[in-house]
Design brief:
Blueprint: H1 2-22, E1 23-26, E2 30-36, E3 39-44, E4 47-50, E5 57-64, E6 68-77, E7 83-94, H2 99-104, H3 109-124, H4 130-135, H5 137-153, E8 157-169, H6 171-239, H7 246-267, H8 281-296
Antiparallel strand pairs: 1-4, 2-3, 2-5, 6-7, 7-8
Helix pairs in contact: 3-5, 7-8
Length: 297
């Protein structure tokens, strides 16, 4: 009887001791790799599972299936011999169809993925100038992603996305680029200002020319009106029977014109004019005009 109780107690202790290693739980989006006597046995998804106790079965690793992001900085040189620091973010995850390779083939997957990306970038960037690198960084990231994804696929990893988040050249290079940009903008601003000044000058010249043209038209119309008025006055005197010579008529008309000019001059507040000092001076003007007309004939 006592022997039976002892055996029963031993069996109960055995199961109690084994219970701690008999059951195990795997979380969501995680896969447990189970080894039996040190050799791969099976994989277990999320939930509660049973394994052989006392080291027969053991959980070798718990592999995450969630998306992982790894960030790194790569220094390389462009085709125009400019050294740049590039910040790269890589998003990857374990291929659920190839979990064993992801665990057993790579000792340090994060560092090895970084090495592949560094190698791909140092092969692609030296083909481009600094300006081309800024313009095509998304294309380079896609090219690197495809190249690294092809390599990592054999190791059970899927490269989902590779992003070049920053391209940082040397401080002196950045300063030079800013100076070039500033000089270019100043040159463009100067050209625009010169165009604006040119438009102002041309517009002012056109306006001045139009003003002079209209002024000339006005003077011509004025002189024509004066001539027409003088002609009409002479005809009226002749038709009225006044026997007076053309020279005398011209003297009278010029005298009237002389007096009208003085009145117009005084109306505008002017105080000095260079004209003959007396009305008799109009006769001198008339004599000069007639002499000029005879000379032209």
């Amino acid at each position: 009887m006592w022997a039976f109780l002892v055996i029963l107690a031993i069996i109960l202790l055995f199961f109690i001791a084994a219970a701690g290693t008999l059951f195990y739980v795997v979380k969501q989006q995680t896969v447990a790799i189970i080894e039996r006597f040190g050799k791969f046995h099976t994989t277990a998804g999320s939930g509660i599972h049973v394994k052989l106790p006392f080291g027969i079965d053991r959980i070798a690793a718990r592999v995450q299936l969630r998306l992982i992001q790894s960030e790194m900085t790569v220094e390389t040189k462009t085709r125009d011999n400019v050294f740049v620091q590039m910040n790269v973010a890589t998003q990857y995850r374990v291929n659920e169809q190839n979990i064993t390779d992801a665990y057993y083939k790579l000792m340090n997957p994060v560092e090895q993925i970084k090495s592949y990306i560094e190698d791909a970038l140092r092969s692609s960037v030296p083909k481009l100038t600094l300006d081309e690198l800024f313009e095509k960084k998304d294309e380079i990231a896609l090219e690197v992603q495809h190249q690294v994804a092809e390599e990592m696929e054999t190791y059970g990893y899927m490269i989902v996305k590779t992003l070049i988040t920053k391209v940082d050249p040397d401080a002196e290079v950045k300063q030079s680029m800013n100076e070039i940009n500033a000089a270019q903008r100043k040159r463009e601003a100067a050209q625009e200002l010169a165009k604006a000044d040119k438009i102002k000058v041309v517009t002012a010249a056109e306006a001045e020319a139009e003003k002079d043209r209209l002024h000339g038209v006005g003077i011509a119309e004025q002189r024509k009106a004066i001539v027409d008025g003088l002609s009409a006055s002479i005809l009226e005197m002749k038709e009225s029977g006044v026997h007076i010579s053309e020279d005398e008529i011209m003297s009278i008309l010029l005298t009237n014109q002389y007096l009208d000019t003085l009145n117009q001059f005084a109306e505008h507040g002017n105080s000095s004019i260079f004209l003959p000092a007396s009305p008799e001076g109009a006769d001198d003007i008339r004599t000069q005009i007639l002499s000029a007309l005879k000379a032209t004939k």
